[in-house]
Input
Amino acid sequence: MPPIFADPSVDAARAEALAWGARPRRNGAWYMAEHVVRTMGAYKWTIVAGALGQPLLYLLGLGAGLAALIAAPVQDGDIAVSYLVFVAPALLMTAGISTASEEFSYPVMAGFKWRRLYFGPNASPISSPQIVTGVVVAALVRIVIVVVVYFAVLVVFQALPLIATGWLLMPIGVLAALSFGLPLMAYAASLENDSGQFAMVQRFVFMPMFLFSGTFYPLTNLPIALQWIGWISPLWHASELGRAASYGKPIEPWLLAVHLGYLLVLTIGSYLIARRVFSRRLAR
Output
């Protein structure tokens, strides 16, 4: 029997508030992802132009153009392929990584410093781990678009001899993007001020990785003193997986596990670190 002085309207309002609070607690990551995707609408034409223009420019310039000057096939281990076929998987991986570097650098720092997009959701029932997951999911939307469009252009250019396994380039490209983007996300979330750190990352991390990870020639063509750049680069590991899927490059099973395991460790470990960094920043 309810208390004599109980107000049914207050009880009903409390129950309704709890019900409304349960939904963001359960689906907070999706709400956050939707919010970030909507903010991408401010530069949607940049996303579209980049997704279409980048593969065309690279394949016409580096693939079709340079390949026309390189008549001899590229000897990649025990298999010889045309230059266009050789560079195609690495270019797709680079496109995914480049997109991740854009989404997980300045936009993440803006969420804490300039636009402060994360503090409002954090004051609601949405938790900081859900905010991290939502940001990652939103970035994945753009990454997947770029990778899928790039794959379609590769098919048009006949740069994938093995279509039956070549489709694996798309999930590998997404994994490559996350393996580079999530460490950058954790780093961006830890920054208090912009003092050119992201420009340094592009100049001294991304560019050496792009040039010295077997993108344009087999890594073994480099002096041994420079090959270590490829060994620690997610781009090289992803490109090797992509070449195995694209044209059947022979890879030992243990090395296949190393390539995949390295990318997964980077992705999962960095995601967990990013959650801790977000939680610490948003708890201040």
Q: What stands out?
A: The longest helix spans residues 8-40. The chain has one domain: 26-282. The beta strands are 74-76, 79-81. Residues 26-282 form one domain.
